[in-house]
Write a structure and sequence with these properties.
single chain; alpha+beta; about 400 residues; about 25% strand; six-stranded antiparallel beta sheet
C-alpha cells in the first residue's frame, strides 16, 4: 500500500538537525514503532505525523520544532518491508542525509544528554530505566517527559509523565538487557542463557571476552574474532561502589560458599582522585569487608579499622535508619559459620565511609572480573594501620 509521501514531506518544516534549535526532542525509533498510535504495521511514519499534530495542539504553535533521533536500525534497508510503504524508510534515510534528523547506533544516550544540557522535553514512551545510573535526574522527574496516547481510536494526545523512582537493582538489570540487545543476545525478549551461561575464550592474548552474536556465530564483542567455548560459567554477583551517589567502580564475585572475598581500599585505586580524595580513600581499610556469595545471596562481615553500617533502601521513599554491621572484633569466642555475617540483600546498601557506598547490582550475567572499572591492588604496606585513617 502506497503512503502519502507528500504529506510526510510536509513534516520537514518541523524538523531541526541541531538539538539546541528545537522546542522538543523526539525518540524517533520509539514513536515510529509505537503500534498503540494506530496502523497495522511494525513501523509507520504516520505515527510521527500524529505526534507532531498533537504537539501543535498542545503548544498552540503550528510551527513547533523537534530534534528527532533514531537508532541506525530504524533506517536499515533490511527492515523496509515493516513500513506500509518502503518509500517511508527511504524518506527517513533522505532526512538523515540532509541533516534533518539524527541517526546513530543507539539514540537513547544522546537523547538524554541533550535533555540534560538544554532542558528540552522528550517525547517518548520509553522509561529509560537502564540509563538512570548515568542520568539520575530522571528519577522522579515530572517535567521533561511526554508520552503519546491515543485513547479509543481518538486523536493522539501528549501526556506529561511521572517517571517515578526505580530501584537501583532494576536500573542495573535493565541496563544489562540493553547491552544484551546490542550484542544480539536477546531472543523473544529473553536473554540467550545458552550463550551467557558459558565461558568463552578469545584468541587475542589477555582478552576476557564479552560474547556477541554476529552472522549467527559467537564472536568477541571487542575484536569480532570467533570465540571458543571454555565450558560452564560459574555464576557471579556484581557489587557497585558509589561515590557521592554515582557508581564509579564495580567488582564481580564468583558464587562459592567456601570462599571469603576481601573488599577494601584496593578496589578504589582507579577511581579518579577528583571524585574520591586521597584522605577519604585512605579512610577505607585495606581489608574492609569480608563477603561470601552463594546461590544469589551475599553475607558480609565488617573487618575495618573504623565501623561500617547498612540500611535498607525504599524506592520512592525514605531509607531505613542505618544499623551497624557485625564486626570481627565484636564476635563472641568460637563464633563460626553464617552467624558471623549479616545478610546483604538486593535493596540494601553498605556505607564504607561517609559518601562511599556499596550496593548490589541487579545484573544476572556481569562481565569478567577484568572488564570495566577495576582496581589495581595497592603496594602492600608494612603496617596497615599507618595507611588507614579512622578519624
Amino acid at each position: 500500500m502506497a503512503s502519502d509521501l507528500a504529506a510526510f514531506r510536509g513534516m520537514e518544516r518541523h524538523l531541526r538537525g541541531e538539538p539546541d534549535q528545537a522546542d522538543y526532542l523526539v525518540d524517533l525509533s520509539n514513536i515510529v514503532r509505537e503500534t498503540g498510535l494506530g496502523g497495522g504495521t511494525r513501523r509507520s511514519l504516520e505515527r510521527l505525523r500524529l505526534v507532531l499534530a498533537a504537539l501543535c495542539r498542545t503548544t498552540g504553535d503550528p510551527d513547533v520544532t523537534v530534534h528527532a533521533i533514531a537508532d541506525n536500525s530504524l533506517l536499515d534497508r533490511r527492515h523496509d518491508d515493516e513500513f506500509p510503504d518502503p518509500g517511508e524508510a527511504g524518506l527517513l534515510r533522505e532526512w538523515r542525509d540532509r541533516g534533518l534528523i539524527a541517526a546513530i547506533g543507539k539514540a537513547d544516550p544522546d537523547l538524554l544528554d541533550h535533555a540534560k544540557v538544554f532542558g528540552t522535553p522528550v517525547v517518548s514512551s520509553d522509561n529509560f530505566t537502564g540509563h538512570r545510573g548515568d542520568h539520575p535526574w530522571i528519577q522522579g522527574d515530572r517535567e521533561h517527559f511526554l508520552t503519546p496516547e491515543r485513547p479509543a481510536g481518538g486523536p493522539v494526545r501528549l501526556v506529561r509523565r511521572d517517571m517515578r523512582v526505580v530501584a537501583d537493582r532494576e536500573i542495573s538489570r535493565e541496563g544489562e538487557r540493553d547491552d544484551l540487545k546490542a550484542r544480539n543476545l536477546m531472543v523473544g525478549g529473553r536473554p540467550r542463557a545458552d550463550i551467557l551461561e558459558r565461558s568463552w575464550r578469545c584468541p587475542r592474548q589477555g582478552c576476557n571476552p564479552g560474547p556477541a552474536i554476529r552472522g549467527g556465530k559467537v564472536v568477541c564483542r571487542s575484536h569480532g574474532t570467533l570465540l571458543a567455548d571454555a565450558g560452564p560459567r560459574r555464576p557471579r554477583l556484581q557489587l557497585k561502589i558509589l561515590v557521592d551517589g554515582r557508581c564509579q567502580a564495580w567488582e564481580n564475585l564468583a558464587e562459592d560458599e567456601s570462599r571469603e572475598f576481601a573488599l577494601g581500599r584496593g578496589h578504589l585505586a582507579r577511581i579518579d582522585p577528583e571524585l574520591l580524595a586521597e584522605r577519604r580513600r585512605l579512610a577505607v581499610s585495606r581489608h574492609h569487608l569480608v563477603i561470601v556469595a552463594h546461590r544469589g545471596t551475599l553475607r558480609v562481615l565488617d573487618t575495618s579499622k573504623g565501623r561500617s553500617r547498612i540500611r535498607t533502601l525504599r524506592p520512592g521513599g525514605a531509607a531505613s535508619p542505618w544499623r551497624p554491621l557485625p564486626h570481627r572484633d565484636d564476635l563472641p569466642p568460637g563464633a563460626a559459620g553464617a552467624a558471623r555475617y549479616a545478610a546483604f540483600g538486593p535493596d540494601e546498601e553498605i556505607e564504607l565511609v561517609p559518601g562511599v557506598v556499596l550496593r548490589r547490582s541487579g545484573q544476572r550475567w556481569p562481565g569478567e572480573r577484568t572488564e570495566g572499572v577495576r582496581a589495581r591492588p595497592p603496594r602492600r604496606p608494612r603496617h596497615d594501620d599507618e595507611l588507614t585513617l579512622t578519624d
